């Protein structure tokens, strides 16, 4: 019998009767405010903030809220199984942790705590290129648990090639190439606080430890931090890239490649034509293009265009289990969870991230069951309406 994630519900009730309450609330939408109280406005501003006036981040939420689930009855949901096949591997649920850089601004154990939490729950962890911890250390903390590597596609080919080699050698299976951040967007909240973590060297661990990156420096990073940071700023992303450049990545990465930040169906078709394995329909949590289409509004057309050729993943605005359900109904095979786990990390390290994962999946399990689904695969367009 498959694991019932919903059992977490009675675990909380029964523990609560003996006076043991969860250290974090089960309403995950409260975590941002709690984190702000704990850490102050700079770090939380960076995580919670978005591009421009914040309209894209709000649109992400509105697009999910506007979809309403239409539950079906009497369909035998006694035995449920949230397992899904994604990119050739079996995941315990249609969920992975999204790549989030600079996690040390949230918690001293940063990516190590988040990766251990994901591993403990069996959920894939996606490590950002801009992690605060070198990828080899994160891999070592994960045993043989499923891990994906997010690539910021550097201007410098040798650095990119070195990252791919290192990620491969450290057992990262899926390459997630982020396309929507060739430049950092206009982010007023960070501008007004003059708060940008990587200008202090945070989130540069993979670069500063990389032989190909260091070859471009006159002095090692610890001797001239400013020069190393400016070298990073000038090369970690490349606005000059075009679709034919993907051949280089396809040539140097044997496993699945997923393009993150696709919103237009034609871009999804180009991804398939370039030999990619999947896309993440995402607007980077509203952090890149102010005024962009909500990710959930873009999802159905992308799924219709390439759903039979590519694995379609989704992020941007997912906060609860019912959001995951809605994403499945709109055409996603699985969902990446972003900010909620980052707040769980800030508030309680590894246990905080595990709490967030377990809450989302318990709620998803219950939403599926109460809507008439024993498995994610039966969820479809007919299960939601647009209100
Ligand atoms: C603080 C922060 C840092 C992020 N860093 C990265 C990153 O390094 N690479 C990347 O591909 N996406 C990054 N993202 C975007 C996430 O992967 C994801 O697309 C986004 O958080 C989804 O939106 P949501 O958190 O509102 O659900 C970052 C997001 C946040 C909030
Ligand atoms: O802040 C972000 O959204 C992001 O993607 C990023 C980019 C560079 C370094 C760290 C995070």
UniProtKB/TrEMBL annotation:
Cofactor: FMN
Coiled-coil blocks: none
Keyword Oxidoreductase: yes
InterPro entries: Aldolase_TIM (IPR013785), Alpha-hydoxy_acid_DH_FMN (IPR012133), FMN-dep_DH (IPR000262), FMN_HAD (IPR037396), FMN_hydac_DH_AS (IPR008259), LMO_FMN (IPR037350)
Segments forming domain FMN hydroxy acid dehydrogenase: 20-387
Keywords linked to the UniProt accession: Oxidoreductase
Signal peptide: none
Keyword Transmembrane in record: no
SUPFAM superfamilies attached to this UniProt entry: FMN-linked oxidoreductases
Family: Belongs to the FMN-dependent alpha-hydroxy acid dehydrogenase family.
Name of the protein described by the UniProt record: Lactate 2-monooxygenase
Source organism of the structure: Streptomyces flavalbus
């Amino acid at each position: 019998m498959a694991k019932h994630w919903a059992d977490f519900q009675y675990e909380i009730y029964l523990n609560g009767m003996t006076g043991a309450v969860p250290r974090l609330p089960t309403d995950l939408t409260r975590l941002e405010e709690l984190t702000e109280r704990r850490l102050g406005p700079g770090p939380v501003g960076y995580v919670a903030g978005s591009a421009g006036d914040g309209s894209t981040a709000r649109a992400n939420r509105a697009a999910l809220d506007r979809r309403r689930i239409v539950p079906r009855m009497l369909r035998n949901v006694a035995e449920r199984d949230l397992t899904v096949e994604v990119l050739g591997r079996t995941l315990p649920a249609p969920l992975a942790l999204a790549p989030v850089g600079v996690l040390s601004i949230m918690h001293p154990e940063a990516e190590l705590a988040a990766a251990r939490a994901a591993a403990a729950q069996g959920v894939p962890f996606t490590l950002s290129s801009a992690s605060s911890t070198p990828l080899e250390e994160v891999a070592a903390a994960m045993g043989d648990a499923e891990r994906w590597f997010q690539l910021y596609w550097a201007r410098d080919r040798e650095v990119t090639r070195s990252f791919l080699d290192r990620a491969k050698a450290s057992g990262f299976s899926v390459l997630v190439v982020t396309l929507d951040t060739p430049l950092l967007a206009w982010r007023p909240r960070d501008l007004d606080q003059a708060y940008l973590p990587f200008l202090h060297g945070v989130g540069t661990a993979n670069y500063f430890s990389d032989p190909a990156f260091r070859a471009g420096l006159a002095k090692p990073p610890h001797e001239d931090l400013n020069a190393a940071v400016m070298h990073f700023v000038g090369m970690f992303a490349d606005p000059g890239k075009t679709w034919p450049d993907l051949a280089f990545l396809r040539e140097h990465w044997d496993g699945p490649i997923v393009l993150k930040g696709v919103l237009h169906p034609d871009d999804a078709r180009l991804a398939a034509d370039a030999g990619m394995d999947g896309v993440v329909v995402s607007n980077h949590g509203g952090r890149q293009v102010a005024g962009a289409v909500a990710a959930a509004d873009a999802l159905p057309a992308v799924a219709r265009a390439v759903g039979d050729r590519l694995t379609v993943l989704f992020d941007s605005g997912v906060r609860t289990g019912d959001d995951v359900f809605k994403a499945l109904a709109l055409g996603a095979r699985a969902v990446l969870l972003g900010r909620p786990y980052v707040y769980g990390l800030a508030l309680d390290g590894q246990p905080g991230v595990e709490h967030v994962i377990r809450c989302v999946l318990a709620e998803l399990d219950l939403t599926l069951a109460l809507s008439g689904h024993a498995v994610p695969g039966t969820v479809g367009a007919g299960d939601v309406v647009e209100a």
